[in-house]
DNA sequence: AACGCGGGGCG
DNA sequence: CGCCCAGCGTT
């Protein structure tokens, strides 16, 4: 690929776009060009596979079909629709941004780079994706797929985890992008990365832009792109309490509004150390944080849960209530096994729920 | 420029 | 078990 040769650039564009038009997958967010739906899909697709997103997208759009519907919705209902998808700040930022569009833009998604980039959760990739796909504006949309494809096309050994590399690739895309059909061009690059130019074993034999690819020419496609290794997730040992009151209700607690799993619900739990008995740490915790006098019973379950940056080792104990269990704190509530279904839980605590309430839900 | 932030699927 | 996925906000 010669970036300074117009004929070569045009051939690349045409090869990519005609391949995309003949081979693109039939995806729910490709049914129309509603900027709101494109936006929702792009947020869901951040760090998340297409196949994972599809059912969430369909359910989410059915529940919140328009900017106004999402703007007026309850945050808990939005998190419930996001439950299990991960990176929950995406959902909270999306609703905050949609509320901004609702009030400041009359419900109409803005179509300028400057305005759309101000919206919470809309970074350089997502702004370019919405502008090109929904509004046919030739802006780069550089995600992991595009970085992999371009790194191979130009045989670059730059580390794609660096911000500078992404910016360089954005400049290359500004040269390459079709001004006639920026939507098909950007989606074509991503689709190529997803279907042909895959991470470990790219299908170079059937690649529509093979003749433009320097990595293929040099047979280094499997060595590219270069990406720095991530640090291992740190382990945390947790103790968790499954407590029922005499009415058969279970105690659950809403997490803080910032940080990990913000505003999601969980069974009361704490990080434990190796210095004191787990039972002692758990009773102290339940007394201090929930004003509950308890006796710790048997360990009834165990959950290992891996996040991108940490690992939870959770031991779940059945807890007997000594005090009455009236009001605990502002962010906790006693719920029946039918009521609990309305609360958004992270997958780690869904596992606990499914085990402890087996047969009841 | 680094790090925190989920969850699942695949080799 | 490690790697990767249509990244962004915070520090």
Describe the structure.
- By secondary structure, this protein is α+β, with helices and mostly antiparallel strands.
- It folds into 2 domains: 6-223, Hypothetical protein, domain 2 (Endonuclease III, domain 1, Orthogonal Bundle), CATH 1.10.340.30; 234-356, Nucleoside Triphosphate Pyrophosphohydrolase.
- The chain is built from 14 helices and 7 strands.
- The chain has helices at residues 6-23, 35-44, 50-63, 67-72, 75-82, 89-104, 113-118, 124-135, 144-153, 163-176, 182-195, 214-218, 278-290, 347-356; strands at 234-243, 250-254, 265-266, 269-271, 294-306, 310-321, 332-335.
- The strands form 2 sheets. A 4-stranded mixed β-sheet has the order 4-1-6-5. The protein has a 3-stranded antiparallel β-sheet with strand order 3-2-7, with no helix packed on it.
- The chain is elongated and about 80 Å long.
- The protein starts with 5 loop residues before the first helix and ends in a 5-residue tail after the last helix.
- The mean pLDDT is 95.
- It binds a DNA duplex (11 and 11 nucleotides) through helix 2, helix 3, helix 6, helix 8 and helix 9.
- This is Adenine DNA glycosylase.
- GO terms for molecular function: 4 iron, 4 sulfur cluster binding; 8-oxo-7,8-dihydroguanine DNA N-glycosylase activity; adenine/guanine mispair binding; metal ion binding; oxidized purine DNA binding; purine-specific mismatch base pair DNA N-glycosylase activity.
- It catalyses: Hydrolyzes free adenine bases from 7,8-dihydro-8-oxoguanine:adenine mismatched double-stranded DNA, leaving an apurinic site.
């Amino acid at each position: 690929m010669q970036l300074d040769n117009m004929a070569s650039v045009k051939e690349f564009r045409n090869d990519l776009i005609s391949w995309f038009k003949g081979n693109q997958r039939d995806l729910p967010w490709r049914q129309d060009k509603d900027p709101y739906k494109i936006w929702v899909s792009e947020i869901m697709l951040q760090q998340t596979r297409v196949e994972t997103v599809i059912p969430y997208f369909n359910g989410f759009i059915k529940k919140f079909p328009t900017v106004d519907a999402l703007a007026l919705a309850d945050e808990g209902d939005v998190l419930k629709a996001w439950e299990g998808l991960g990176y929950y700040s995406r959902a909270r930022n999306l609703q905050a941004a949609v509320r901004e569009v609702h009030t400041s833009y009359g419900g109409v998604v803005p179509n300028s780079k400057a305005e759309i980039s101000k919206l919470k959760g809309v970074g350089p990739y997502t702004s370019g994706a919405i502008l090109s796909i929904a509004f046919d504006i030739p802006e780069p949309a550089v995600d992991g797929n595009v970085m992999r494809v371009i790194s191979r096309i130009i045989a670059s050994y730059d580390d794609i985890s660096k911000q500078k590399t992404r910016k360089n690739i954005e400049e290359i895309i500004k040269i390459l992008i079709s001004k006639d059909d920026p939507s098909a061009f950007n989606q074509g690059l991503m689709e190529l990365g997803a279907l042909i130019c895959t991470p470990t074993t790219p299908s170079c034999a059937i690649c529509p832009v093979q003749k433009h690819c320097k990595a293929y020419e040099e047979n280094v496609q499997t060595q590219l792109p270069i990406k720095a290794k991530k640090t291992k997730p740190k382990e945390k040992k947790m103790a968790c309490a499954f407590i029922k009151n005499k009415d058969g209700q279970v105690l659950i607690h809403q997490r803080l509004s910032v940080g990990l799993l913000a505003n999601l619900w969980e069974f009361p739990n704490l990080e434990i150390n190796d210095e004191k008995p787990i039972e002692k740490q758990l009773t102290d915790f339940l007394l201090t944080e929930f004003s509950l006098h308890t006796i710790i019973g048997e360990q009834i379950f165990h959950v290992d849960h891996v996040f991108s940056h940490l690992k939870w080792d959770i031991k779940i104990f059945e807890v007997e209530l000594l005090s009455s269990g009236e009001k605990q704190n502002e962010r906790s509530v006693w719920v029946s096994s039918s009521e609990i279904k309305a609360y958004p839980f992270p997958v780690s605590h869904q596992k606990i729920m499914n085990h402890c309430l087996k047969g009841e839900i």
